Amino acid sequence: MIPRYSRPEMVSIWSPETKYRIWFEIEAHACTALAKLGVIPEEAAKNIWEKGSNAKFDVSRIEEIEAVTKHDVIAFLTHLAEFIGPDSRFVHQGMTSSDVLDTTLNVQLMRASDILIKDMDELLKALKKRAFEYKDTVMIGRSHGIHAEPTTFGLKLAFAYAEFSRCRARLVAAKEEISTCAISGAVGTFANIDPRVEAYVADQLGMRPEPISTQIIPRDRHAMFFATLGVIASSIERLAIEIRHLQRTEVLEAEEYFSPGQKGSSAMPHKRNPVLSENLTGLSRMIRSFAFPAMEDVALWHERDISHSSVERFIGPDATITLDFALARLTSVIDKLLVYPENMMKNLNKFHGLVNSQRVLLALTQKGVSREDAYRIVQRNAMQVWEHGKDFLQELLADPDVRRVLSEEEIREKFDLGYHTKHVDTIFHRVFG
Amino acid sequence: MIPRYSRPEMVSIWSPETKYRIWFEIEAHACTALAKLGVIPEEAAKNIWEKGSNAKFDVSRIEEIEAVTKHDVIAFLTHLAEFIGPDSRFVHQGMTSSDVLDTTLNVQLMRASDILIKDMDELLKALKKRAFEYKDTVMIGRSHGIHAEPTTFGLKLAFAYAEFSRCRARLVAAKEEISTCAISGAVGTFANIDPRVEAYVADQLGMRPEPISTQIIPRDRHAMFFATLGVIASSIERLAIEIRHLQRTEVLEAEEYFSPGQKGSSAMPHKRNPVLSENLTGLSRMIRSFAFPAMEDVALWHERDISHSSVERFIGPDATITLDFALARLTSVIDKLLVYPENMMKNLNKFHGLVNSQRVLLALTQKGVSREDAYRIVQRNAMQVWEHGKDFLQELLADPDVRRVLSEEEIREKFDLGYHTKHVDTIFHRVFG
Amino acid sequence: MIPRYSRPEMVSIWSPETKYRIWFEIEAHACTALAKLGVIPEEAAKNIWEKGSNAKFDVSRIEEIEAVTKHDVIAFLTHLAEFIGPDSRFVHQGMTSSDVLDTTLNVQLMRASDILIKDMDELLKALKKRAFEYKDTVMIGRSHGIHAEPTTFGLKLAFAYAEFSRCRARLVAAKEEISTCAISGAVGTFANIDPRVEAYVADQLGMRPEPISTQIIPRDRHAMFFATLGVIASSIERLAIEIRHLQRTEVLEAEEYFSPGQKGSSAMPHKRNPVLSENLTGLSRMIRSFAFPAMEDVALWHERDISHSSVERFIGPDATITLDFALARLTSVIDKLLVYPENMMKNLNKFHGLVNSQRVLLALTQKGVSREDAYRIVQRNAMQVWEHGKDFLQELLADPDVRRVLSEEEIREKFDLGYHTKHVDTIFHRVFG
Amino acid sequence: MIPRYSRPEMVSIWSPETKYRIWFEIEAHACTALAKLGVIPEEAAKNIWEKGSNAKFDVSRIEEIEAVTKHDVIAFLTHLAEFIGPDSRFVHQGMTSSDVLDTTLNVQLMRASDILIKDMDELLKALKKRAFEYKDTVMIGRSHGIHAEPTTFGLKLAFAYAEFSRCRARLVAAKEEISTCAISGAVGTFANIDPRVEAYVADQLGMRPEPISTQIIPRDRHAMFFATLGVIASSIERLAIEIRHLQRTEVLEAEEYFSPGQKGSSAMPHKRNPVLSENLTGLSRMIRSFAFPAMEDVALWHERDISHSSVERFIGPDATITLDFALARLTSVIDKLLVYPENMMKNLNKFHGLVNSQRVLLALTQKGVSREDAYRIVQRNAMQVWEHGKDFLQELLADPDVRRVLSEEEIREKFDLGYHTKHVDTIFHRVFG
């Protein structure tokens, strides 16, 4: 966790305090279930809930105990017993440490998912607002970094909206993947604990029971979770790079908001750097990289080995905290993005109408000119523009081969930008409903 | 594509012949739609379908043309025109190369998904059959590679069944991701082509229209597709490693089928190597690795750059062909796996009953012995077994501290394996329904 | 291996023919060594060399035998015996298959390295030539994609030269890593073969004996090899992206050479796409990705497991063939790159001298103006340029606060581009010697 | 940074205090050089050194300033000025922030490398000690997890020693890669600063000047650095997995040291889990994963973009701190490893001599028996052992086909373990010199 790339709500999910509180709740819910089944006294279960709920767990005390026992759950239970007293012997009955640890991790990931989904909704809201704002703002579309045909800035943002809508759906699916609870004992056979305990605890925590576990909850679930985060990060990277391109000095069609106090280039007004988007590019690399160890964690030995644990201590917090931060930062970038429609138009017209060459070509072939001849005619005029800075429309109007098949009106129509934007509403309807 | 890790049906999806056939169909469907809209003559559309359907495209001829034009779609259209004649000028009207290329890639990935889903069904069938066969075959469960508590071999296979059921669902979702068609022109604005053409072609191909495209279909879809394949590969690795462990000389609880002609260790009957599972381990690494360039492909520049293309020429075929092969190989390994229940029982009993120490411990605490005392008592007897090879049951029966709270019957009950298998049916019901 | 990204010389290293030829040579060299040690008859060794050297191995025949034996080396030895006759029983004595397989892989990687080093030399040559050609061609340097201070195009190329010089050195080191030979028997103990055989064969093949092997040559060597290729690919990506940026429509300071026959945008002269550099970007992603399964291959079980083998069947050829292709393609791109110094100058002057603001600022502080005041003064004039398109030099000359401390000559000197290029020769000397 | 996987010395390298101290030293050295060149007064340089050396930088104060300026170096310089007074205007003259930042990162990585090299030396020492201790301790070697031929435990450790010796050399090379200093100004042209300043500072810090930089030190250096760490992590993983295998219940040839207070399985003496090695397996996955974003950092835009920065805030500390911890943990595991030679011998003899079948086979062929016949004879006897638990030696002695060509003495000799260990000294000499 890098403090500067962290937000408190998500960070708090991963604090020891939160973890121990979830541990307690799982143990206490299990006690309730055990009491219902008559395995432990109802009074004990009540007492455990009462004393534990009011207890303020002392993280450093637990770490102290763990330093001796080298076992985190036993250390916690020992500390818990200090609050609960003799009834503590009913806690954790028939359970194994991983029942607590794995269910807790999933609770944390579920909570993290909820924040991420909320973040995504904020991002979608910002994208939608700006997309409608610039729905009809014409600009040049680019393939290979080279001018292609006109599009609108609203379409760019609508595209991002559609992409992040897919990311949202993937996130919801990823949350589903890890919303399971396992309380199944040492090798998952329920030898020492009734499966109804698991069912009860799962229900209380808003989870599904893991259909079959082997001490641990299977890690293909987590691999899928972190792989999904990696894909989402890649979409963040895409939009960040789009913004960086638009802010390039020679392009300058959009710009990250620049706060007045911000220094470093105060005497160079052209030197406004897209540092937030560059930062997002780097953060995306990190989030994506976490998918790799998560996938390697799947192949644990037999019923379990603990090699996944150290990986998850890193990527559990780091991936969710960083993605939360990145989504919020991206939302802010989009929200406050400075957009320069005049520059968009200036860039669009850079080649004096050449951008319409494709349309003219098509018009010629539709009038019966062979593809080869049409190419040659258009190319001839295009070269006048390219090499001598002539105006493409004027050249075409003056070319007898063109005029033979196309009227002035027909030619002028090919230079109408409305031609390119006529389906924008259709597309917006598809994307935003 | 490595021939030895390839199966013909999947390979054929990626052949140039298949690709050109799909290209043709997309173009021809588009012509039908254009004819319906009155853009091109109905006769032309009919003629294109007829001549094109009967045409036998000559791959080397197309490559020859491409060598000059350096443009694959134009090369194909030129070749197609050789079959269709003058009506060929109606082909590809208002379309852009990527309309064809991207839709084709998705058609190929859809077909590949269908094979993979079929493979997965075969694997699930094999796992289910063997799971029921060994439902009650008791063996030791292992955590950290160390004996823990008894489980059954059927449970191991049921666990794999549940895992691959999840993988199947993920695969279905992944197929959905890439089941889109885009025919939206140079920068996705439909400037030169009516959106209804896209809708028609999509429908004919069993796809959804891509809600918003930018010359290309967005690559977050493909990133999600290949990431999913990477997760599935990781699950294959898990099961392969399980088998390799079970076949270790000292464990030998299961073994890959060994064909009579197979050489290399004919004089060393103990030297039957789990080469298929080892091979699957390596193949999984490859399939997993393909997820990363796929994620890097997401952040294309502006409306598109073509950097994804070379990546997809590798991973499109390699990931699907290799996963198809791996799933089939794993199915065969499971199907023919030699299982040795006697060795399982021998290994289970390796420590003369020590495996039941946890149960005895629990029983003591349930009888009111403090956790600390119970530990001490059990440990004392365990050490007799561990250090002097004594029998755990006999030691406990002879220990007055134990006998004070537990009767002989109660102690003997702790050594009953049925205790561990009592919920197997419940778990099977959860997994197999 | 993707044919379109492959060159024949590198491909041939990975052909079955080459592989079997190397197998033969290792076996035959071992025979010579065994004969010298008196283990086998000298006549036999001679006969083996003679018959084997003239033999034309039949790949399909070997595959046929392998289909039965499921063991590639035995299949080859069986085929070899068909040429050599009874003396074939002296072949492979005391050796294990991996002795042949692993040494062969390293021979192939050494040969591949030699080609890659040669490729790198070609690239360096092209970079050096073009660097000197444009040593003094001034252009704007950019940080964050935003104009910073002037540099020269030659410096850009010199930077790439220095980077690829490092890559060359890394490649030489990587080759060293894998230049080892192992002929040490089933678990590397030389139980069945004298270590002097290994020493002899190593020497004949230009290798070092692997100090300690365990049936196989340790895979950390190969991990390092492929990781190095991944780093080199990343440097290729850097230069490719530089070129793609320079070719952007709005920048257009350089352009990939565009062959006359090349179609697709013949009527749109502005539509020359940097497709080669985009292709290099994608290829780099692939080569980089191969480093990861190579690293996962290190942790083989005990003395060996064979999980690395399938990985290497992919990445051995794919990484080297693709890198060879990419280096050659990059060399060609650099060699023929179209460079537009006028556009460089036009872009540099885009902001009417603002690029010199930093120098003016520095000059003011050096004359005793406080940093804060200097900022304010420069900023005031910069804003006139930025917002009203004024000329920065004229504004400064007219500003009394500036003139109070700087003479006209001093101000004008701040606009001298020579200021920025005065150390180019020094840097070139550092880079090129 | 995960506290439980961190050691203080390495952590301190990455503290803000250390960072600011290095920043100061770079600035102060640069002042000395500028004074020597007559650019700033000598008195000022002296004053800066004196005041700065004694200053206790206040991290929270700097962060406070940065919150306003959004620029870390300016914030630091502002704070520094609070100590130095008016002479502070001579600090940072002609320099750019990256001169300080990049050189500092490299200083930190150099110091980190020094610790890692020291760690590696400790590990090598432990491996060597234990290798000689068990030089002649015979155990079975395993390929594919299956018994192959005898080796010694000392050879296993010698193999690890050789592997980590290579890792040490790679680490030294990696340190060399990043031991460069850049003080070259905004785009690396030295426009505002004399190259001799860079040379002087580099010299003072024990670095080489970066031959050509572009505001930043090229990131292929860092990619190589972190890729090397990834390879080293993979070697750690290999040894950790070896230990995990040896500790498997059925194998139990070695065991991690188990401290008396350690709980969790106190009543199950067989339940000693190789948790340290499992932990090392997970940590290796993390360290390896960091190589990926490091490689992606290479392709920065033009003279620089800042996307690498966020990545390095993660992986700079995380990779070095985790590797330091892992190396120390592995050293401790090796140092205290419990080794069970009796179990090794018991496992070796598991198949009543079958392990010698290969030698018998070879002996028969050397006596002129054809390979096919020899196979058949050995196989026949092997099957008696495998299926009926007979003793291989006795079977062979009783087999007339064997006795026809081999005397009793010759047969018995094939069961002599000394045969397998006769070259151990040679190999040790190769490895340890």
From TrEMBL, chains A, B, C, D:
User: Cellular component GO terms, alphabetically?
Assistant: cytosol
- InterPro entries tied to this protein: AdenyloSucc_lyase_C, Fumarase/histidase_N, Fumarate_lyase_CS, Fumarate_lyase_fam, Fumarate_lyase_N, L-Aspartase-like, Pur_lyase
CDD domains on file? Adenylsuccinate_lyase_1
Catalytic activities = (2S)-2-[5-amino-1-(5-phospho-beta-D-ribosyl)imidazole-4-carboxamido]succinate = 5-amino-1-(5-phospho-beta-D-ribosyl)imidazole-4-carboxamide + fumarate; N(6)-(1,2-dicarboxyethyl)-AMP = fumarate + AMP
Q: Any idea of its EC number?
A: 4.3.2.2
Q: What metabolic or biological pathway is this protein involved in?
A: Purine metabolism; AMP biosynthesis via de novo pathway; AMP from IMP: step 2/2; Purine metabolism; IMP biosynthesis via de novo pathway; 5-amino-1-(5-phospho-D-ribosyl)imidazole-4-carboxamide from 5-amino-1-(5-phospho-D-ribosyl)imidazole-4-carboxylate: step 2/2
Give a yes or no for keyword rRNA processing in this entry.
Answer: no
- Is Calcium tagged as a keyword? no
Instruction: From the UniProt record, give one GO term of the biological process aspect.
Output: 'de novo' AMP biosynthetic process
GO function terms (MF aspect):
(S)-2-(5-amino-1-(5-phospho-D-ribosyl)imidazole-4-carboxamido) succinate lyase (fumarate-forming) activity; N6-(1,2-dicarboxyethyl)AMP AMP-lyase (fumarate-forming) activity
User: Could you tell me the keywords of this UniProt record?
Assistant: Lyase, Purine biosynthesis
The segment(s) forming the Adenylosuccinate lyase C-terminal domain are 352-432
Alphabetized SMART domains for the sequence: ADSL_C (SM00998)
Q: Which protein family is it in? A: Belongs to the lyase 1 family. Adenylosuccinate lyase subfamily.
Q: What name appears for this protein in its UniProt entry? A: Adenylosuccinate lyase
UniProt organism field: Bartonella apihabitans
